């Protein structure tokens, strides 16, 4: 993965949601976004900003107990996956269909399902910085590079 943006400051949950909302209009069907970061880093908050901007009516909640939640009223459809419960297990619950499908996929705890994630994906890492957060962005291929560049532009514009 190549680093494009490092340590971008997000000083409130609203700013995390806003970052998601800025990424949303740049997304194309098939895009895969891995969200890395500790528990409480803001991963689900970020997806909430994306979902609202894509037109999903339901609020995004942590899908930890569901593993995957689909927002079919979003455009494109949004798949929110939390792989936390899948650590060390090889369960076929159709994640690959979602990832290869015509929606956009956001994956929390991507390291737990690494073999299912295409190399050409965007990676957003959130880390605690006192009460705030810092965001870094990496890409792994041609499409995700374009997405990363446009996201960086949107954040700085
Ligand atoms: N930039 C930020 N600054 C401060 N708090 C934040 C920020 N982004 C999110 N939060 C808060 O962090 C908490 C955990 O967020 P959540 O999205 O559930 O984390 P994760 O999904 O990574 O476990 C929530 O209370 C959320 O409002
Ligand atoms: Mg979460």
Question: Percent helix among the residues?
Answer: 25-40%
One letter per element, helices H and strands E, the order comes to EHEHEEHEEEH
Mean pLDDT: 93
Number of helices: 4
Q: What characteristic shape results from the CA principal axes?
A: globular
Q: What would you say the CATH architecture is? A: 3-Layer(aba) Sandwich
3D architecture notes:
This protein has 157 residues and is an alpha/beta fold. The protein has a single domain (2-156), classed as 3-Layer(aba) Sandwich (Rossmann fold), CATH 3.40.50.300. It has four helices and seven strands; from the N terminus they run E-H-E-H-E-E-H-E-E-E-H. The chain has helices at 13-23, 43-53, 95-100, 142-156; strands spanning 2-10, 32-36, 68-71, 78-82, 104-108, 122-129, 132-139. A seven-stranded mixed β-sheet has the order 1-7-6-2-5-4-3. A hairpin with a 6-residue loop joins strand 3 and strand 4. Helix 1 (13-23) packs across helix 2. The longest helix is centred in the C-terminal third of the chain and has 15 residues, at 142-156. It is globular, with a radius of gyration of 14 Å. The two termini are 25 Å apart. Magnesium ion (MG) binds next to helix 2.
């Amino acid at each position: 993965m190549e680093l494009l943006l490092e340590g971008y400051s997000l000083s409130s949950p609203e700013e995390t949601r806003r970052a998601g909302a800025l990424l949303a209009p740049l997304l194309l069907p098939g895009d895969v976004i891995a969200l890395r970061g500790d528990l409480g880093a803001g991963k689900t908050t970020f997806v909430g900003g994306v979902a609202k901007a894509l037109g999903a009516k339901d609020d995004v909640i942590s899908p930890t107990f569901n593993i995957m939640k689909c927002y079919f009223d979003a455009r494109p459809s949004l798949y929110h996956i939390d792989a936390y419960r899948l650590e060390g297990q090889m369960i076929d619950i159709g994640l690959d269909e979602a990832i290869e499908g015509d929606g956009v996929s956001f994956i929390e705890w991507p390291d737990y399902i690494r073999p299912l994630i295409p190399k050409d994906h965007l990676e957003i890492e959130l880390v605690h910085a006192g009460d705030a957060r810092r965001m870094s962005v990496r890409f792994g291929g041609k499409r995700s590079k374009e997405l990363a560049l446009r996201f960086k532009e949107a954040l700085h514009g």
